[in-house]
Each structure stands twice: as C-alpha cells, then as structure tokens.
Design goal:
Blueprint: E1 2-6, H1 13-16, E2 22-23, E3 37-43, E4 47-54, E5 78-85, E6 88-96, E7 102-109, E8 112-113, E9 125-130, E10 135-142, E11 156-164, E12 170-173, E13 191-197
Parallel strand pairs: 1-3, 1-13
Antiparallel strand pairs: 2-3, 3-4, 4-10, 5-6, 5-11, 6-7, 7-8, 9-10, 11-12, 11-13
C-alpha cells in the first residue's frame, strides 16, 4: 500500500519533512539503490503534498524556478506521483524537479492524454533545496484542483516514482509494476492508499 499521512492542521513544507519517510531501496531492475531516495505523501485539510529527498548529485536545468510549469522534467532528475481510482482507468500525473518546477497531465487510459478532462491546477506551491551532493523538493496541490476524482479511500490507487542520475539513469517505483522495461503508466499496478492519521 502507499502510505499517505493525514494531518488535521495546516501543513508546511518544513513540517512535511518531519513526517516519516518512505525509502525506495531497489531500482526497476532489482539493483540496490546506492544513494538513498525517499518520499513523503501527506494531506492536510486543504492540500495534498509530495516531498522527495535524494542523496545524490542533482541533475536539473538551472534555469528552472519554483512553481514553474515545465513539460519534460522526466528527462533529468524527477519525482512523480500518479493518482487514480480502481473504478476507472483514468489517472493524473504530477512531476517535480529538484528546482521545484512542476508539470501535470491527465490520461483517460494508458498513456492517452485527455486534454478535455485536464484543468490547469491553480494554487500549486513548491519547495526546493539543492546541495552539491543531494536535493530535496516538495509540491503541494489544493485538493479541489485535481482533474480526476480524489477520494482517498479503498478505491483510490496511487504510485510514487523517481528517475535519477546522469551517467547512469535509475528508475525507481514504490509500486511493484509488472513490466520488464521502465514504464510508470501501468495504472493497474498502482497501490491502494493507506491513509494514516498523524499527530
């Protein structure tokens, strides 16, 4: 299951990174990840948050800025969250770069973009902290700005994934996706949400 922490008070990015983190220990091909990669997903009364930490030299476009909407972030380091429902093949994808740039789209089914269903989310906020050998970034999305139904119960399915590294690209996923080659769009393999009340 994919843990999502539910807090009753307004969450800040500082408080987000105080929550328990989920570490991805193996890459797509079963190799142990040498540099720790972890994430946090949480909700407060108004927003859903994704936090990402990577203990490796960041690879990103230095011209990117926080809250900038940029397609193609997956070509360099990126954290991603996919959210959908077991009741429909539709899902929404959000990408987050080390610099705090973000991107989103809706797919009506496997890799089929739905420009009609997609409504540009408003009120997106991001956070970025870049070091020489690590990076940390976070994204907050107002709960009423999703273009797919967001009902965080047993019907909600989600996944968090990363693409990291320049010389050697690593593909990381929380859910166990049953494909030989990296492909994060297999919504049928996303995990049920484990909503955990915290604090």
């Amino acid at each position: 299951m994919l843990p999502i922490y539910k807090v009753s008070s307004t969450l800040t990015f500082d408080k987000l990174f105080e929550l328990p983190q989920n570490q991805i220990e193996y890459d797509w091909f079963g190799e142990r990840v040498k540099n720790p990669v972890s994430f946090i997903v949480a909700i407060d009364p108004d927003k859903l948050f994704l936090g990402a930490k990577v203990e490796a030299t960041p690879w990103y476009d230095a011209v990117q800025t926080p809250t900038q909407f940029v397609e193609g972030l997956w070509n360099k380091d990126v954290a991603e969250i996919f959210i959908g429902s077991s009741q429909t093949p539709a899902y929404q994808e959000f990408n987050l770069s080390p610099a705090g740039a973000w991107w989103s789209c809706v797919c009506s089914k496997y890799r089929k973009r739905d420009q009609v269903a997609f409504k540009m989310p408003q009120g997106i906020q991001t956070f970025s902290k870049i070091g020489s050998a690590n990076w940390q970034a976070a994204l907050s999305i107002p709960l009423d700005q999703f273009s797919v139904p967001l009902d965080l119960d047993d019907a909600c399915r989600a996944n968090v994934s990363f693409v990291v590294g320049k010389a050697k690209r690593q593909y990381l996923t929380w859910a166990n996706i049953q494909q030989r080659e990296p492909d994060f769009h297999r919504a049928e393999d996303y995990e049920n949400v484990d909503l955990i009340t915290y604090g």
